[in-house]
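Chapter summary example.
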Amino acid sequence: MSDQSSPVKVERRGAVGVLVIDRADRRNALSRDTLYALGRLGKELVSDPDVRAIVLTGAGDKAFCAGADLKERQGMSPDDVRKQVGLYRTELGVLDRSTKPVIAAINGVAFGGGLELALICDLRVAAPHAELALPETTLGIIPGAGGTQRLPRVVGEARAKEMILLGRKLGAAEALAWGLVNRVSPAGASVLDDTLAWIEPIAGGAPIAQSAALRAIDTSYEVPLELGLELERVYYDETLRSEDRLEALRAFAEKRKPAFRGV
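The structure predicted for these 263 residues follows.
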């Protein structure tokens, strides 16, 4: 059960672990305690063999995460801020490096560190009213939790510069057109429920194959094609040794849905 005093709650939806930033009164802003909780609970879900995917969302319907907790930042020295920004790497790294798919269910605004948190995820689903932005330059700083690095890799350099230099907000439809989100939920639907339904092929899929595919993509993204193809071969070989692969062949022959066990 979740610690009721924690700024992050955990829910289990079948084979999916759901992390909910539970600070709706602060627009789910990232305080120091919130970052530590995401790191601790994220590690628990990544290491849980019964969890096949992780969904990250915010409480309420107004904000996924509005970014850094500016109230907490008041009075911080430059060194304090440096340490705080460092927590984004140390605490959120477990989700960034997860071999299980991580999906953001963006239930409202995702600004600054909130969008950087969503960019750590492998896939992003947005509510129709969601807004996404990296407004840091309008506040005299730059995105310091990976935004200048991850956003160009997702939407391209020119569009990333447009968002960052102009502090430009994108609505859900435009974010979908830009490739910043993978899906926009239907109007009136719960973005979390819609996300869970959408990722059912992951929750019911072959975890060894999914992990191998994620690692093949992530480790070869910026290497020469020849090396990328060799890495793909290595990860493909992992799947050949799995019982899940044999189960898929049996299920095909028997005209039934395979029952993958992650072995």
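To summarize the output: The domain at 8-203 is CATH 3.90.226.10 (2-enoyl-CoA Hydratase; Chain A, domain 1).
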